[in-house]
Amino acid sequence: MHIHQYEKLWLGMSLLLIVGFIATITYGAVGVGVTMIDDSGGNVDPNALDEHPEFSDPGVEKVGENEYEAYVVARQFIFQPDPIVVPANSTVTFYVTSADVVHGFSVVGTNANTMVIPGEVAEVTVEVGEPGEYGIVCHEYCGAGHHSMEGMLRVVPEGEYNSSDGGEQ
Amino acid sequence: MSVDQETFADRYPQEAELVRRAFLVAFTALGLGALFGIFQALHRTNVLRIIPSTDYYTALTAHGVLLAIVFTIFYLVGLYQWAVTRSLDRSPTNINFTRAWLTLMTVGSAITGVTILLGFVDQIGISADVLFTFYAPLQAHPLFYTGLVVFIIGTWLAGVDWFRTWLHWKQDNPDERIPLQTFMVLTTMIMWYIATIGVAIAVLFFLLPWSLGLIDTVNPLLTRTLFWFFGHPVVYFWLLPAYMLWYTVLPKLAGGRLFSDPLARVVFVLFVLLSTPVGIHHQYVDPGIAEGFKFIAMTNTMFLLLPSLLTAFTVVASMEHGARQRGGEGLFGWLTALPWRDPAFTGMALAGLMFAAGGFSGMINAGMNINYLIHNTLWVPGHFHLTVGTAVALTMMAGTYWLWPQLTNRRLYSRPIGLLQVVMWFGGMALMSNSMHVAGLYGVPRRTAEPQYAGFDFNTAFGSMAELNIQLAVGGTLLFVSTLLFLGNLTLSLGNPKVEGLGQSLPEPLSGAEDSPRVLDNMRLWAGIALVLVVLAYVLPLGAIIQNGGLFGTGGDAYPVSVLGTFDGLDAVLELLGVGR
Amino acid sequence: MSRGVPAVEDEEEVPGSEQSVSAPVTQEEPERELTHEEFDPKGTLALILTYFAVLAIMWVFMYFVEFLGNDLIVVG
Predict the structure, then answer these.
(1) What gap in Å lies between CA B200 and CA B229, rounded to an integer?
(2) How do the domains of chain B map onto residue ranges?
(3) How far is CA B242 from CA B72, B81, B323, in A?
(4) How many distinct structural domains can be found in chain A?
(5) DSSP A131
(6) What is the CATH classification number for the domain harbouring A139?
(7) Quick one: pLDDT band at residue C1, thresholds 50, 70, 90?
(8) Contact C68/A125, CB-based, under 8 Å?
């Protein structure tokens, strides 16, 4: 099999490109510390969220110094709680699950973006910076009212954060 | 190169009729799909809303299924039937079998297609508004899944037919290499058999019985993972017919010869091996799948770039060969010597150019953690409208301009209109896809009727959402007009008189099959390795999903999109037809 | 040579140079034959190296500016 020398060169460069891509992703994972959503959130019965210790009353709770957990339920066609309120300059872990069909949970204009699958809990930890407001959209078709499914993430100054905020619906 | 070379239709009239029939179904789907496409382009940008937003999802389901399944795959079977018959110079072993699988595919498509379209008629209560991906626990009417099963069985039998024809040819020609086009058909079908295992299990063992009420629950992550087991290789099922046209027809149109037959074979073998163990890259941000499995899927996906990167070189080199034979000179000056006034050539060349751009957005999609940036945003349909929506669709339309005269013995109605059509598609797609990619980066979601939200606005780094919307709407309109021009041109061609001498030959490659090792033609070997790779990539993640969430999930109701029960809906149809009880 | 129309008189035929059925009838014929040995795809090489450069630059921009420069990096 004789291959033209230019083609051999291109084959080499293609492999270089591929290895370069994989190396970049690996750098993002190991060097920067970007992790993927995985199976650490565990499983739930979507019909029994009412009895779940956390999802029965979705909301934000403080779990450590500057560390918060936000339990979020997606259902046709709302997010609970709405808005989700967290203090600025904190580490927030979202636990998101669905009470019915497949939804999406995307904090618009950011990297916080996960699928929400009934039976599964998506665990997403992010570092929250300055105060501000972000929209949240459901980005997976979930029924005829899908386009109206939105929420809000409100990042408030540390001093203004009231622990009951995120828990209210 | 005899004088007045006979056409495919002269030499194989029965086969030509079947190819035309497959193309007829494909182009009907193309027309309907394009109609739903323009509805969406105008609706989601809020330029013009003709249908209620709840029906948007009926249109979206129809657009996806009609174009990505019916148009592409019917074109594929037509093209592949032509290619096998032509390159082996041999009729199917039993043409009635060929008729049977084509009929089966048509019936299946009709069942699924009608079930989807009934979603527009509220009184009937039948619906399949579950989109192209039909993620449980949204539940379509059982007829939707049934039609899909019938269709896929039809495609399996098509593969059987082509393998059988080849085996008989092999008995008569034991020492010959597999002709390139047949090689491409056989490798594509091996990939398809492996790929469809996933969707067949999802539909036959879970979704269909569940929609009929035979089982109560399914595991949504499991059926979703099985869908994507099929859902990625299916994109190569769309692409490989386009590759066949690029490798075997485009060099001829350019006035040259294929640069390397051996590399074409290597490329198709790489697709057999790597197309399937990658599906999890559609699930990078799914809960319930460990990061390690996602990383393995990514590595496989990145290496799957290789056959396409090699194709870029071989195909461009074949064009350059044509251009230089036509007197082209200079490092880039040869580009002007290409036959740009031939719509078949220009369409395929522009399709290839867009594939290079789509290749880039695909590389982003493939990169595991960068998926957070673009997952389920408008970026993704922006990407696949460049790939399946242009690289594949435009190549298929362009190929038709060359193939159709040989299937009908009639000249094309208008070559200039054909040229306008392919250029308009390119321009329309450039606008639409660009705006979709950019909007995606701003976080605009895909698959939604009204991406205008009450509580917030999208922040645009430059320009405005209004400008992007206009770009999308204008692009979509151009694409729709282009489709009409294509269909109109073909229809009017049927009015042309029958003539002789439209037959075409395909030139021999510069470097032929004899330059490649015979092991490339060993179909059993490649199928075996491919299966091993699939097992390695999927056994552990599927096992973990079943172990954690159960074979039938952790509970949870079905959410039927049909308003009425299964059989009530059927009664309503019969009543409307005047045959009700 | 099949064109189905009265053709311009052919000179020396280039093998495989039959006119495409979808091409304009006035399209010019290939004028010479290039074998595998005579043909160096240097134009292709130039194009594809340009493509490589574009891909590399765009990738770096997308990954390091668009993605890593974005808010709310997922860290767990």
Answers:
(1) 10
(2) 8-117+132-576
(3) 10, 14, 21
(4) 2
(5) S
(6) 2.60.40.420
(7) very low
(8) no
Same domain, yes or no: A131 and A86: yes
Measured CA to CA, the distance from residue B286 to residue B220 in angstroms comes to 11
pLDDT tens digit sequence for B147-173: 999 999 999 999 999 999 999 999 999
A25 & A43 share domain:
no
Q: What number of residues does chain B have?
A: 581
Of B236, B237, B355, B538, which is the active-site residue?
B236
> Exactly one of B21, B141, B232, B281 is catalytic; which is it?
B232
Q: How does pLDDT run across A72-123, given as a tens digit for each residue? A: 999 999 999 999 999 999 999 999 999 999 999 999 999 999 999 999 999 9
The label of the residue with tokens 């972000």 reads: A134
Reduced to 3 states (helix: H, G, I; strand: E, B; else coil), residue A68 is strand
Q: Cα distance from C60 to chain B (closest Cα, Å)?
A: 11
If asked whether residues A24 and A52 sit together in one domain, one would say no
Q: Is the pLDDT of residue C16 over 80?
A: no
Cβ atoms within 10 A of the Cβ of A48, count? 14
Quick check: A108 and A136 in contact, CB under 8 A?
Answer: yes
Candidates A75, B402, B397; CA nearest to C18 is B402
Which pair of structure tokens corresponds to residue B554? 């952790």
Q: Which helix (H) or strand (E) holds A60?
A: strand A60-64
Q: Does residue B383 have an active-site annotation?
A: yes
ipTM of the prediction = 0.95
Are the CB atoms for A124 and A37 separated by under 8 Å?
yes
Residue B384 known to be catalytic: yes
A123 shares a domain with A162 = yes
Copy the structure tokens of residue B408: 């009908």
Same domain? For A47 and A2 the reply is no
**Whether A17 and A86 share a structural domain:** no
Interface residue C69 vs chain B (CB under 8 A)? no
Residue numbers of the domain that contains A136? 39-167
d(CA B229, CA B192): 11
- Number of other residues whose CB lies within 10 A of the CB of residue B557: 15
Protein fold of B8-117+132-576: Cytochrome C Oxidase; Chain A (1.20.210)
Do A30 and A51 lie in a common domain? no
